[in-house]
Design brief:
- The chain has a two-stranded antiparallel sheet with strand order 1-2.
- Helix content is 48%, strand content 6%.
- It has a single domain, classed as Arc Repressor Mutant, subunit A.
- By secondary structure, it is mainly alpha-helical.
- It contains five helices and two strands.
Length: 83
Amino acid sequence: MIICHCQKITDHDIHAAIDWMRAADMHTIITPGKIYRALGKAADCGGCMSLFLTTMRTNSNMEVPMQLRKLRRGQTQENRDER
């Protein structure tokens, strides 16, 4: 299914880019911008963004890694440094 008509990006393209990025680095933060760059494209009008994000979220490689799921809320590196 075509997700972005301006750049002719399909759901298959999005899933392939996510899978490739996750295989290359398990801890990378995957964003729409990184997916566009991985595909050699750039966002144009943004009309597809809600469908683009929905498609991203359906990919099993977008799940939060197990080791990051149990982190305490609100505790960041910045907060720890202030104490």
